[in-house]
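ENTRY TYPE: protein
CONTENTS: sequence, C-alpha cells:
***
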Amino acid sequence: MSGREKMEKYRHLIGLIIAINTIVPKFIFNFLWVITASSEGSLPLLIRYFYVKKYAKVCGDNIYIGKYVTIKNIQSLILESNISIHAYVYLDAYGGIDIGKNVSIANHSTLVSFEHTWLDYNKPIKYNQVESRQVKIENDVWIGSGCRILSGVTIHTRSIIAAGAVVNKNVHSNVIVGGIPCKVIKQI
C-alpha cells in the first residue's frame, strides 16, 4: 500500500493524533525526532510527519521526511501535499521556503533561503548581516540528488533539476536544468 493510500485509509486516526499533539511539549517532539532520525520505518516516518505538521507554518497531507533530514527555522516552512524529502536533505527556511504539491527532493540536497553579505569590512564575512530571500518550489517538481537550491530562487511548475545542479536563478516551467550553475538542458 502506498503512503498516499495509507494516509487516506487512516485519515480519521491521523486527524485525532494531530489534535492530541497540540498538547505535547516541543522537547518531547525534539527527542522523538532525534531518536527516530536513523530509521525510515512507518512509525519514525509518522513521528516526523506529526512534528512537521505541528511546527511548520503550513503542512499538507502525505509528507515523507526521510532519515537524517535537517530542518532549520521550521516556522517559516510551507509544505503543500504529496511531498517527499529524502535522506540527508538540509532545509534552512530562515527567509522562507515554500514547496508546492507533488514535489520530490532527492537525497543529499540543500535548500537555503538566506545568504551572507560582505559589505562591512570592519567585520569578518561570517559576522556580516544575513539577507533573507525566499525559495519557492512550485507544483510537480523533481529535484535530483545532491542539488543546491540557493536563496531567492523560484523553480516553476513541472521542472526537473538534474543531480548535482546548483540553482542560483529562477527555473522556468517544463524544463530540465543541470550543471554548476544550472542551465537549461532540455524542454519537456
Q: What stands out?
A: The two ends are 30 Å apart (CA to CA). Helices lie at 3-9, 11-21, 26-35, 42-55.
